[in-house]
Write the structure tokens for this entry.
Amino acid sequence: MKRPSFIKKCPRLCGMLVLWTVLLFPAVVAGQQKQNADSLTYSLYQQQQWDELIRTGTAAIRQGVDHFYMQMRVGIAWYEKQNYRRAIPFFCKARQLNPIDEVATEYLYYSYLLAGRTADARVVLSQLTPAHRQKLGQKVPSVIDQVYIEAGPGFSGTSDLKQHNKNRRQADTIYNQAWYYDALQYYHAGINFNVLPQLQTYQGVSLISVEATQKVNYQQQPKPDFRHTAMQQEYYGNLQYTPLPGWKIVPAWHLTRIRYDVRNFKYDGALGLVSDTLSLTRHDNLFWLAINKEFGIFSAELNGALASFDGSDAWQAGFFVNVYPLGNLKLYTRTGLIALRDGQEANHLIFHQSVGTRVLPSLWLDVSATIGNLRGYTEQNAFVLFNIPEDARFKTEALLTWAAGNHLELSLRYRLMRRTSSYLTYINNEDFIVLEKDYNFNTFIGGIKWQF
């Protein structure tokens, strides 16, 4: 007896059914998972349950449920938690998935701005249409971005140092000499220019005057003090280039011209110890390069400098890590290790640590400590150059910054340096000893920044 034809076809039909089930089941499951993830994250978004939304949405993205709205929901959750650095990658991905969406662009712009990544924010702003910029209350940056002025005095504790040196080895010596740097006045003015959305340049000039005293004793008889004011003229410039989001390259240069007088002593057989005054000019030049890369709540910086201090070559190389544990500017740290070879051909290792916090809605406090011999050291993209005439093995600073308005920013900086004074004493015409004594040098600097 022959079997019905449908019975003959049954095994083949069953096989095909199983095959289609195997092929289609993952897609059905994936579709169901996507629908469930969408529904759940949308519900969490409406309920503003940001922590759960971050956990659920991030897990969904890792499992392949990756689309514009999922990226936006997770990014907004981080933004609402004020962790702007965590939010940035999600808004970047959302813009890639939908480049014309204005909401994603707005969130990315403000995340950059509130995270302190102003260079990236400026690039995003340049990509907006005039109507979109007007909606945000922003405008195309002018050529002059900001004007900055700072100035302040410095003073030392050399009165105690002079008294201390007065009793040093005078009974058994024939000649003693010491330099004291009593006070300084500092002035700086600069302008930051917008060249391109990805390129800015800062140009500034400074003037520093230092009051110096040269004390000399000859055969236990003090000579009249030689007082002089040294003048240091400075030109500083840099370029700030943002080739890609999260990258910044900063070349800089710092050129100085120092004019000072010194009293030169020599022995005359008939007249004894005589002196004349020499007027000298010194040039110090430094060239700097820094490369910075953002990594979420971290950023890393590699920098280096080549310098010429009065014709003597020097170099510096450093590595820094910035941390923003909350993903915003409420708390941040900077840690660095620097290798330095100064103009005296001496090698130094320097450690830097700073911590900053927002103490009031518009007021920030930064404190820092730098340990190591800072003679010839430079920092802040070579804006600050310690081409000082003495060793300085420790520095601490406190900086208050107040955003007084949309355009005005005021700052006050206090700096304490532990410097080393040298006391030269000749036992006879050939043999001499250099004695050292540490003292404190204090500086106060007030700054005004006007942003256009």
Summary: Helices lie at 5-47, 50-62, 68-80, 84-97, 102-114, 118-126, 130-135, 158-166. The CA atoms of residues 7 and 234 lie 99 Å apart. The chain has eight helices and 17 strands.
